[in-house]
């Protein structure tokens, strides 16, 4: 029932979540000359650096029949969304302690606001990626619309996970550090810079336990391989089960701990 009530509240207050997400995005760069532009410029610059080093410097060959930059974009764009959302959502309760102490405010919205804020940049990156793919001779087709499916389920996955880590982080400050370490290891354990075909077959199942494997490969299936998500029905079922579990546990844990937030903050 907790998850159901949370879901209804998010739907009813979607406009407030939208406005808070916009304010959160602008507040990150408040005081800087270029303002919100930095939110887009920094990831773009990082992608250009990676492209120059690996494509121009090391002259990487095409990966999975795609130019390296296209293959890299399909993997790194969803990872940027995931890492930025989880890192910011983990500390969302402490950052908004003034709202937590307001009786009428639903604190479970705070991690969702952080994810929605990161989604703004993610949508721009999807659009930019599609433009780059088009100039590389890959026009928009039906397969590419799967990106919105993968973005949606990643949003749900992040929501459940962020409820867990943000609630625990209020009482255990080490949670934030653990999340940062996991993100660093996860970046290299997810096939973003390296092809999954390089992994011996007997170890495939280990890497597939990583939920982000499904998302990253899903983006590549949509943009490069032209494969529908239901063709990987086993991974799809696995990801939805993990997501459903996190949503239920996250909502229950958040509801149990949230009454004590103000005491700690």
TrEMBL record:
InterPro entries: ABC2_TM, ABC2_TM_bact-type. GO terms for molecular function: ABC-type transporter activity. The chain crosses the membrane at residues 29-53, 68-87, 108-135, 147-171, 178-196, 237-254. It comes from the Bacteria. It is found in: Cell membrane. One of its GO terms (biological process) is lipopolysaccharide transport. Residues 34-257 form the ABC transmembrane type-2 domain. PROSITE patterns: ABC_TM2. One of its GO terms (cellular component) is plasma membrane. Keywords: Cell membrane, Membrane, Transmembrane, Transmembrane helix, Transport. It is a multi-pass membrane protein. PANTHER family: CAPSULE POLYSACCHARIDE EXPORT INNER-MEMBRANE PROTEIN CTRC, INNER MEMBRANE TRANSPORT PERMEASE. Belongs to the ABC-2 integral membrane protein family. This is Transport permease protein. It comes from Paenibacillus borealis.
């Amino acid at each position: 029932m907790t998850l159901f009530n949370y879901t209804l509240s998010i739907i009813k207050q979607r406009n407030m979540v939208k406005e808070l997400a916009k304010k959160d995005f602008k507040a990150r760069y408040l005081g800087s000359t270029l303002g919100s532009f930095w939110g887009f410029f920094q990831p773009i610059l990082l992608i250009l650096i990676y492209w120059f080093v690996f494509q121009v410097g090391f002259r990487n060959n095409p990966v999975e029949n795609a130019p390296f930059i296209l293959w890299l974009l399909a993997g790194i764009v969803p990872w940027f969304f995931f890492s930025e959302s989880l890192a910011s959502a983990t500390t969302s309760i402490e950052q908004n302690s003034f709202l937590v102490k307001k009786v009428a405010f639903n604190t479970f919205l705070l991690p969702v606001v952080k994810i929605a804020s990161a989604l703004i940049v993610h949508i721009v990156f999807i659009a930019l990626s599609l433009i780059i793919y088009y100039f590389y001779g890959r026009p928009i087709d039906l397969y590419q619309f799967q990106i919105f499916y993968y973005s949606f389920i990643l949003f749900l996955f992040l929501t459940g996970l962020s409820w867990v880590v943000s609630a625990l982080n209020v009482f255990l400050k080490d949670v934030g550090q653990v999340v940062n370490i996991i993100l660093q290891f996860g970046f290299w354990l997810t096939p973003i810079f390296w092809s999954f075909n390089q992994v011996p077959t007997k170890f495939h199942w280990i890497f597939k336990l990583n939920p982000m494997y499904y998302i990253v490969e899903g983006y590549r299936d949509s943009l490069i391989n032209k494969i529908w998500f239901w063709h990987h029905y086993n991974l799809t079922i696995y990801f939805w089960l993990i997501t459903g579990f996190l949503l239920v546990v996250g909502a229950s844990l958040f509801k149990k701990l949230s009454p004590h937030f103000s005491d700690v903050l």
